[in-house]
Amino acid sequence: MATGTPQLLTCRRILSLMVILNYMLHHMLIVNISIAIIQTSSNFDDTQKNNIRGVFFWGFLLTPMLGGRLAEIHGTRIVLGGAMLLASLLTLVTPLAYNFNYFCLMVVRFSLGLSLGVAFPAVATLVRRWIPVTDTSKFISHVFASDIGATITLAGSGFLINAWGWSSVFYVTGATVVLWCVCWFYLVYDSPEKHPRISQLEREALAEAIPHVERPNPTKTPWLKMFKSRPVWAIIVANACAMLNTNTTLNYLPLYMRQVLHYEIRENGLLSSLPFLGPYIMALATSYLADRWTKSATFTTPTIRKIFTGLFFLGSVVLLAVLCFWGYVRFVSVSVFILWQTIFGSAAAGFISNTVDISPVYSGTILGSAATVGGFTGYLSSLLVTAFVRGEGDVFEQWRGVFGVLIGTNLFGWGFYFWGMSGQVQEWNGESGMEMEAVNRVEVD
After folding, report:
1. In CATH, what number does 11-210+222-439 get?
2. Which ranges of the sequence are coiled-coil (predicted)?
3. What is the DSSP string of 58-123?
4. Is the pLDDT reported for residue 407 higher than 50?
């Protein structure tokens, strides 16, 4: 801390660690079925498999806005912790549902989508109470720890399946989340004022760095003004376009590895995990640059957000074009998928952090709204792949159609965000720009 806290492990650092683990586990519960369902292919045809993947996103579509709003009113601790606990229990009963019947498995996956939809945006509301504005991008970058969770799950699932059967994937991931929930409720509180074990030094340093920390949770939301706001829609559209990319990769990369590159199950799981190693590293690097540029006033906030959002969208266009021509070559495909997912990490310092720029108070609701639309694109990814990829004939040519649609999506997402974004706190936020400037300049570790 700039004001001096001798503790090595402060409450804010513990909070950051728990948030990192949360996002890792959040994605573990999403992707665990991507490998397991391939191994258990005898019970369901391809259409049913796509429905099992896709129904999760219908559930996820319905609750992120609710999750963000509930966290703003009741606090992140209870909302996020409760949602993740429910998700862990649903994961543990997934093998039972599978053995019962197809409809029961669909209900469990839909319910899992509902619970994880609540969990995803809830973290954003912690920012205004725990994180100085100059560290916002760095904290928001932890959302990309989810990709580490995807990496671990995709890499480890093949080994778990070969050793103990496909159901072990769900038992291991579900039990891990239960353990996280116990730690979450013990270690994390909604504000420094509510934390029973925070030191006086850390409490005072945070109060100096974040003067608005004492303000009560908002009870009314300016819905009409919010959804008439062009900067809000810029974030929602950018997130939707980005999520169509990442959901297609997240859910169908193992299928591409099997159909086009002809990898076996153990190789498939390991290689499918590789693209998810890079985004968190990229998110940390770009967020460090963004916060550094903010503190030094090297660039304005809008310029910073445009730079890193453009890095993802325009970089994706180039890489997808490479896949269209040489995606049948193993080395080229694996390398491009790794780079493609890696540059997605730059969105942390781009449109994702932009939610807190325009509205620190309602950032949870905005992120929830963006995640709602993003959840719908998760289902769109299943429709997209189903529409183009038939699994017979020239399969690579079919996948080129998928890549072409994604190229157009990225160009549109970049153009819309560039046109509509803002770096200023919006009037309907309820806090003036002067008040936000007072928050900015104390650095806290």
Report:
1. 1.20.1250.20
2. none
3. HHHHHSHHHHHHHHHHH-HHHHHHHHHHHHHHHHHTHHHHHHH-HHHHHHHHHHHHHHHHHHHHHG
4. yes
